[in-house]
């Protein structure tokens, strides 16, 4: 029975795509499959990955590759003059995440990066570039722009302003509810604690928390402390035997 189900899914995933026929094929491919992350394996059956028939995609410059997974109720939208969205192999976008590009902005997400539910990436006036194997917890926000706040103009009509792009290097981990603002560069291997607001650069392997986020320790120092603890514990044990 499992072989029949897999053959069924593989047949229809070969025909999957963004047109109405492709959407129908994707829906047929999901018959008999588990929901949510249980459908990730389908993304490896098509050169453009898997796009849920319940996802909203209004973006002619969307580029996806084999292994990319766009889950239920994900929205990918392009405003006028918006740049491309590039999802490399193995990128996962889960439920109710919103990906949006507008004037002056593009979004690129590196291979095997996973974005959990209800995140928002909104690239206007600046771009969002995320590296490989980045783990992003639910409810994270990325805004490479801000609104003007001049007192002589209504807030609704204030222009958008940007100090620069958001760049997140490989192997970064962002906890739940992190906000990343414009002109921020997060170095490789950094960890950002839940609920933090990142307003300035974070160096590689740093652990940062708070609003605004500040570096409180380094991962490489934690590794060293761990080794020292193990060595001390082993030496103490040897003396008692």
Protein architecture, described:
The radius of gyration is 21 Å and the shape is globular. Residues 228-234 have low confidence and may be disordered. Strand 23 (206-209) and strand 24 (214-218) form a beta hairpin. The protein is built from three helices and 24 strands. The chain has a single domain (2-239), classed as UDP N-Acetylglucosamine Acyltransferase, domain 1, CATH 2.160.10. A nine-stranded mixed β-sheet has the order 1-4-7-10-13-18-21-23-24. It has a seven-stranded parallel β-sheet with strand order 2-5-8-11-14-19-22, with no helix packed on it. The longest helix is centred in the last third of the chain and has 21 residues, at 219-239. By secondary structure, the protein is an alpha/beta fold. Helix 1 packs antiparallel against helix 2.
Quickly list its features.
alpha/beta; globular; 24 strands; 241 residues
Structure, briefly:
The chain has 241 residues and is an alpha/beta fold.
The CATH homologous superfamily name equals Hexapeptide repeat proteins
Number of helices: 3
Average residue-wise pLDDT: 92
Rg, rounded, reads 21 Å
Q: Which class in CATH terms?
A: Mainly Beta
CATH architectural name: 3 Solenoid
Number of DSSP-assigned strands: 24
Biggest beta-sheet profile: 9 strands, mixed
Spans where pLDDT lies below 50 across 5 or more residues: 228-234
Strand content: 25-35%
User: How many angstroms separate the termini?
Assistant: 58 Å
| Arrangement of strands in the largest sheet | 1-4-7-10-13-18-21-23-24
The chain-level structural class is alpha/beta
Reading the helices and strands in chain order gives HHEEEEEEEEEEEEEEEEEEEEEEEEH
Shape call? globular
CATH topology: UDP N-Acetylglucosamine Acyltransferase, domain 1
Estimate percent helicity: 10-25%
């Amino acid at each position: 029975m499992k072989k029949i189900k897999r053959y069924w899914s593989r047949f229809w995933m070969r025909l999957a795509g963004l047109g109405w026929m492709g959407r129908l094929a994707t829906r047929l491919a999901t018959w008999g499959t588990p929901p949510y992350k249980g459908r990730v394996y389908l993304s490896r059956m098509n050169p453009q990955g898997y796009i849920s028939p319940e996802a909203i995609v209004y973006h002619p410059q969307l580029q996806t590759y084999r292994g990319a997974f766009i889950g239920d109720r994900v929205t990918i939208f392009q405003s006028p003059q918006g740049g491309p969205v590039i999802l490399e192999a193995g990128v996962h976008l889960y439920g109710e995440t919103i990906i949006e590009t507008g004037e002056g902005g593009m979004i690129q997400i590196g291979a095997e990066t996973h974005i959990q539910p209800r995140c928002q990436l909104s690239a206007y006036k600046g771009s969002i570039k995320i590296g490989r194997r980045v783990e992003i917890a639910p409810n994270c926000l990325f805004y490479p722009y801000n609104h003007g706040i001049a007192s002589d103009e209504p807030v609704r009509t204030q222009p958008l302003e940007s100090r620069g792009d958001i760049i997140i290097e490989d192997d970064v981990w962002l906890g739940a509810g992190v906000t990343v603002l414009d002109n921020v560069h997060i170095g490789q291997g950094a960890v950002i604690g839940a609920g933090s607001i990142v307003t300035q650069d974070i160096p590689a392997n740093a652990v940062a928390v708070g609003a605004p986020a500040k570096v409180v320790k380094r991962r490489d120092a934690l590794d060293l402390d761990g080794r020292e603890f193990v060595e001390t514990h082993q030496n103490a044990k040897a003396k008692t035997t």
